[in-house]
Design a protein that fits this description.
single chain, 558 residues, mainly alpha, four-stranded mixed β-sheet, two-stranded antiparallel ribbon, 58% helix
């Protein structure tokens, strides 16, 4: 079919035809090619992302937070009760539950302990295979992350066309942060993705508000029913909904107020439904005490139009914010938080080509007249969410700002609107640079940093926790010790929720014995290296680094 079309376009008789028919046929042939080319390229981009995420999910042991979420999802499945992890609403864990249901783990609801202990008991002391259970728990999140890629494609395509859609999808699908956290049974990517989906639907509501504003409310409610950190998006997206239906006509005021109310009511309803899906009677018997929170924060939690379990979860989050957490940035260990931590961490952990496209895209959205109407929908939600996250007390990683690469994938594609002769080839070169940088880190996406900061092998010198070392490489450590260091004495300082002995690592804690008795291999998670003080610092300083595992664990010789 395509060959016959090409022959008709290139027919020698057409060369003498002064009319527009040959050009019309050429344009038709190009349109026909584009119809299958865009889906093909989109499929290839998402396929490589799926391979990266599934491979990562298969190879990584449980990270710090995952056992809690998986155990809570298992409790939902078997006991239908609101007991564990109240600081996060249920929806994300209900998604995890879909995979847990397939794995069908053995679960002992009578086990008593904290939510972290329940998670470890489920994975390592209940006769379950933690590799299999974790893979099934992660697969629904991987599927959801891929679906959000389609939202990125559609959003950018509606703003600027098919080429922009593909560029945006490329930025999204090669983002190391999105791949790293999209492959885990955690809540950061789904919460951010639902906010993105809501912003896109509000944008679409310009033409059909009665259809898309309720759907935007559903997506907004899904984000708030996944993580409470999405709450600041509610006023932003409600304001954008008002802008969407406002036409500077006083008689439309009732319509504007109705649009805002529809979104708010729908979002609140989704939160309630997520709790009702766990327990229709909304029984909340927390496994651990809920702290008392007073003052303005306590009043705010009490006034939220959500179930009691949600309000108590807010109180737990406020109590967490009051704890003296330690941060680590550019080699400096500190207690508390730094307002500039997240922008600095994003600068380290974002590919250089992506940073350039983000900046150019933001300029294009605010300076090119035809893009200005879309700019608030793409730039305002991540700006507000980032400003909110920067006020937090936990400087633990760019996962708290994973909405930035998701939204700015759409914004970065706007660079194609710049009227500059070299904009398209330069954009293509930058996307290629992003792809190469991302592929080179495979499959170690969590400790990624860009080339300006030395790549993944150097990230631990500048950042810690989920930026580098979140407990994901315990299985790889077991393989490395078995292959290269069989029979040697092992001293281990590990950060994570895994149980080393399950993987065949039989080690002692060097912090519990005199320094002079520690001989053999000293194995230390890089987050502990970053925070090392006192005896542990002396041990590390007097040892020789000989190996690293996954760019997150260092092996020393003593």
């Amino acid at each position: 079919m395509m060959a016959s079309e090409q022959q008709s376009v290139l027919d020698p008789g057409d060369l003498d035809d002064p009319g527009p028919a040959p050009m019309a046929r050429l344009r038709a042939a190009l349109r026909a090619r584009r119809r299958w080319l865009v889906p093909l390229l989109a499929t290839l981009l998402l396929a490589q992302m799926a391979v990266a995420m599934v491979t990562t999910a298969v190879q990584q042991t449980p990270t710090v937070d995952e056992p809690v979420y998986v155990a809570t999802a298992t409790d939902y499945l078997h006991e239908h009760r609101l007991r564990y992890n109240p600081e996060h609403p249920p929806l994300g864990k209900l998604v995890v539950m879909a995979g847990v249901a397939v794995a069908d783990p053995h679960y002992d609801p009578s086990y008593q302990g904290s939510q972290g202990q329940v998670g470890r008991h489920l994975l390592y002391a209940s006769g379950n295979d933690p590799w299999r259970l974790m893979l099934w728990a992660r697969l629904p999140m991987i599927a959801l992350t891929l679906l959000f890629g389609l939202v990125v494609l559609a959003f950018a395509r509606e703003i600027l066309g098919a080429a922009a859609g593909l560029l945006a999808l490329a930025l999204y699908s090669f983002s190391p942060d999105v791949i790293a956290h999209g492959s885990l049974a955690t809540l950061d990517v789904p919460a951010a993705g639902f906010v993105l989906t809501s912003a896109w639907l509000v944008w679409r509501a310009r033409r059909r508000p009665r259809l898309y504003l309720p759907l935007a409310g559903v997506a907004l409610g899904a984000s708030v029913a996944t993580k409470m950190s999405a709450l600041p998006a509610i006023p932003v997206l409600m304001a954008l909904a008002v802008v969407t239906v406002w036409h500077d006509r006083p008689q439309r005021l009732r319509r504007v107020l109705a649009a805002s109310a529809v979104m708010a009511v729908t979002a609140v309803a989704v939160v309630w439904l997520s709790y009702l899906a766990v327990d229709p009677r909304l029984r909340f018997v927390p496994a651990e005490p809920v702290p008392a929170v007073h003052g303005l924060r306590g009043l705010m939690a009490g006034l939220m139009p959500f179930p009691r379990a949600y309000r108590d979860g807010m109180r737990v989050q406020f109590a967490f914010e009051d704890l003296p957490w330690q941060g680590f940035l550019f080699g400096h260990l500190y207690t508390g938080s730094r307002w500039y931590y997240l922008p600095a961490a994003l600068l380290v952990k974002t590919p250089l080509g992506m940073l350039a496209l983000w900046a150019a895209g933001a300029v294009a959205m605010t300076s090119v007249r035809r893009l200005r109407p879309a700019a608030p929908y793409v730039l305002l939600p991540p700006a507000v969410l980032l400003a909110s996250a920067m006020t937090g007390s936990r400087d633990f990683g760019t996962r708290y700002a994973v909405f930035v690469p998701m939204f700015l994938a759409v914004g970065g594609a706007s660079v194609l609107a710049l009227r500059w002769r070299w904009s398209r080839p330069v954009s293509g070169a930058l996307v290629l640079f992003v792809a190469v940088s991302s592929l080179r880190t495979f499959p170690f996406y969590l400790p990624y940093s860009n080339e300006a900061f030395g790549g993944p092998a150097k990230t631990h010198l500048r950042l810690h926790d989920s930026n580098v070392d979140w407990g994901q490489d315990l299985g790889r450590l077991a393989d490395r010790l078995r292959e290269r260091y069989p029979g040697e004495r092992i001293w281990l300082v590990y950060k994570g929720s895994g149980v080393p002995s399950y993987y065949g690592i039989h080690a002692a804690d060097p912090r519990k014995v005199p320094l002079g008795t520690v001989h053999g291999l000293l194995v230390v998670s890089d987050s502990w290296v970053a925070k090392a003080r006192g005896g542990l610092a002396e041990l590390i300083d007097s040892s020789r680094p000989i190996d690293d595992v996954g760019h997150s664990i260092t092996i020393y010789r003593r």
